[in-house]
Amino acid sequence: MSQADEVDRIVEAWNAQRPDLDFAPLEVLSRMDRLTRLLDRARREVFRRSELEPWEWDVLSALRRAGAPFQLSPKQLLQQTLVSSGTMTNRIDRLVARRLVRREADPGDGRSILVTLTDDGRIRVDAAITRLVDVEADLLQGLSRGDRDRLAALLRKLSLTFES
Q: Between 63 and which of 37, 82, 117, 140 could a Cys-Cys bridge form, CB atoms 3.0 to 4.6 Å apart?
């Protein structure tokens, strides 16, 4: 082993106390948990610099990824952000109040609405994604492109087993 990290020290201590258990899962998932917390802090800072809350980023980035005219139905936003309809209604209300989105009648169904990204919302989400990509590239600079590709493939494989 080249260098020991905190997870190595934790696993070593558990092995001394409970040699009857296989701590291999901790070696993977405890590292993922620690990295998730570090990434969450880095992302929160990126969003703060763009004057966005993480939940605002979720909604605005879903609209931005939809492409011009940057609009989705509340149901489509629910599917992408995995929150309840009451929560989504509250989020849309708050984003409308901040003038980051607007509600528009759905021309295809007069009973429905579409949520549309405003120019200010697009400017903020574009600034945030630029900062986010830069910060995340810095976080991964210790890995070669090949290592990042292999890690992404392994994490995709693990993610798909969790989803099924």
A: 117
The Cα–Cα gap between 164 and 159 comes to 9
Packing angle between helix 74-81 and helix 54-65, nearest 10 degrees?
Answer: 120
Q: Output b/e per residue, 63-85; b: 16+ Cβ within 10 A.
A: bbebeeebbbebeebbebeebee
Q: Which single residue is written with the structure tokens 């992404």?
A: 152
Q: Which CATH code for domain 53-163?
A: 1.10.10.10
Domain boundaries of the chain, sorted by first residue: 1-49, 53-163
Q: Is the dihedral of CA 22, 24, 29, 35 positive or negative?
A: positive
- Over residues 15-68, the pLDDT tens digits come to 999 999 999 999 999 999 999 999 999 999 999 999 999 999 999 999 999 999
